[in-house]
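One-letter codes give the sequence; each number marks local geometry. A record appears below:


***
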Amino acid sequence: MTFRDALDLALRNLRQAKLRTSLTTLGVAIGIASLAGMVSLGVGLQEQFVNRFTRSGMFDSITVLSGADRPGFMARGLGAGRRGFGRGAASQASENERDLTEDALKELAALDHVRAVYPSIRIPVEVKFGGESEFSLAAAVPMGVRGEGAFQSIPYGRFFTSDTETACMLSLDMAKRIKRTDPGSLVGQSLTLNYASSVGGVPQRTDMTCPIVGIVERETGPMPAVASVSPLMIPMGKAREMYAATLATAQAIQPGAARARAYPSVVVRVKGPEHTQDVEDRIKQMGFSAFSLNDALQNAKRAFIILDIVLSLIGSIALAVSSLGIMNTMVMSILERTREIGIMKAIGGSDGDIRRIFLIEASAIGFLGGVAGVVLGWAVGRAINFGANIYIEQQGGTPANLFSLPFWLIGGAIGFSIGVSLLAGSYPAARAARLDPIRALRHD
């Protein structure tokens, strides 16, 4: 018997029992829909998490400190090492430590796979508006972060036009503190920034009129790598001028207290998260301290893999139940077609031919159920996603695609459905192949 003959017989047998075949296929479809829906939820959540944080610049950014400004346990460990190994080790460590000067920034920018280097500057200022005042930190914002992170969408106003523009942006929270009822109307108005400066070595306070050009919806936190979002933001070029003035004031008050034009920290942006670890290692070899969130990204991906596995196991429960339906359908088919099996064996049909027919029937049910299950899972996911986004928008959040059904998941779900169906149909197929043709012909 050729494969084409076995296929024709299997499909004919399925058509003769349309209701039973349809119900069994529906059971497989529900199982696959459950499995595909669960996994697509995990994949969708992973894509939302990774893509949003990647676009925010967190995972392609490295925060660099001077060699002496090691954070946390690094500083304590280094200090302990110096005390333990004596003056020679201390001298060697101090020689390797470097300040983040303009020359150091140029060296960092020359590294391979680095696309931007800028200092993380936050200047203490007194903000005055309409007779009211408050103290805040003015954060430097480079032009390279336009359209990234918190600056992807500016609800009121615009981004800076140049690096030296005398202008500022506010966070929405600060704008509401200044004008609670209509914070957007602040765009076009001006603040007065009062900061420390020095003229001829004499410390003084300088006022700068700063037009408000935009209001950013949210703050992204204290990490310098997250585009330096702060309640008050100014262009990087203007911030460098103000930083030089405040540094000169500190040196005038206490000579030697501040290092000449050395920045407290620097942000290095690489061309992609895959280059973060390599660039970070080279920065440390240059004598600086460096850290990034690249390890956190890898840990998050591993956590989502575990989540996908758990969701897959939960979704497979319904598929396991449907596999019992396939087995029941095949066993019932054997009982109904016992005489037919006996006739096929009597005219020369082998055990392998009989087994092949039943396995083709099982795989056909699995294929049809898999395709229908993927379509059903996609439709249910779209419906849930639509309803969830309505609720998210009502709560003031940003709509997102919570379910993702990539091609590998579609193919995997259908293939898994066929595999489970073949496994469920293997026992009935083997049972049909072992039938004695004489007893089968005598069967009523």
Q: What stands out?
A: The radius of gyration is 34 Å.
